[in-house]
Amino acid sequence: MNHDAPTLAVSTVIFALRANEAQTKDSGETSAATLWLPLVRRIREPFEGRWALPGGPIGASESLGDAAARNLLETTSLTSRYLEQLYAFGTVDRSPSQRVVSIVYWALVRPDEAERATEGENVRWFAADDLPELAFDHNTIVEYALWRLRNKMEYSRIAHAFLGERFTLTQLREVYEAVLRKPLDPANFRRQIESTNSVVATDERLAGGRHRPPRLYRYNESFGLADNGPLPVT
């Protein structure tokens, strides 16, 4: 272990909702969306060849948030409208070569944004609940981020970060079900979400279905994504 001054870096956990492509291909039907995140393959030691969270060093003249956004863009070509500092991880032995303290951010991206992620030999999407052994302590970091996200779903309106500008209440409910990994009663969900006033009904309807098109809603911009309020999680 090198006992020089610690190195400071940023890492980012990026969550998006994606269908399981393998299940879709096998069944011929679209599978329910689940949480996925992009990882990058390390091309140098330590842990060369192992998958890891996107990240890198912090520039001398940039803020922590700017460094997280830059590293996110450089490694995955992703940007996020929701980027929040998660935690600082600085266990002495988390890196075998030198002391590294990582300021970890988490980002939530919509499906259309996730499609723009650069994927190739060294960047790949993984199911968040079924990860391989990652470099450093990144499995622990993802576990903490998942716990934080699921806990936050129960008292904030963070689910909207996964959606486009217009969405149906069914699409919103599917976000909750995917993140919390449990079904929610549709009628009860509708009553509770409408009672929070966090969504506003529009005059638009979703086109393309066989039945009467469902109404589209928009996010109530007077609420912040982290604002508290009663939410339908039971």
UniProtKB/TrEMBL annotation:
Gene3D superfamilies according to UniProt: Nucleoside Triphosphate Pyrophosphohydrolase, Winged helix-like DNA-binding domain superfamily/Winged helix DNA-binding domain
Signal peptide positions on this chain: none
Could you tell me which InterPro entries the record lists for this protein? Answer: NUDIX_hydrolase-like_dom_sf, NUDIX_hydrolase_dom, WH-like_DNA-bd_sf, WH_DNA-bd_sf, WHD_NrtR
* Nudix hydrolase domain ranges (all copies): 5-150
PROSITE patterns linked: NUDIX (PS51462)
Under the heading SUPFAM superfamilies, the entry gives:
Nudix, Winged helix' DNA-binding domain
Q: What PANTHER family does the entry give?
A: ADP-RIBOSE PYROPHOSPHATASE (PTHR43736), SLR1690 PROTEIN (PTHR43736:SF4)
Instruction: Write the protein's name.
Output: ADP-ribose pyrophosphatase
This chain's source organism reads: Subtercola lobariae
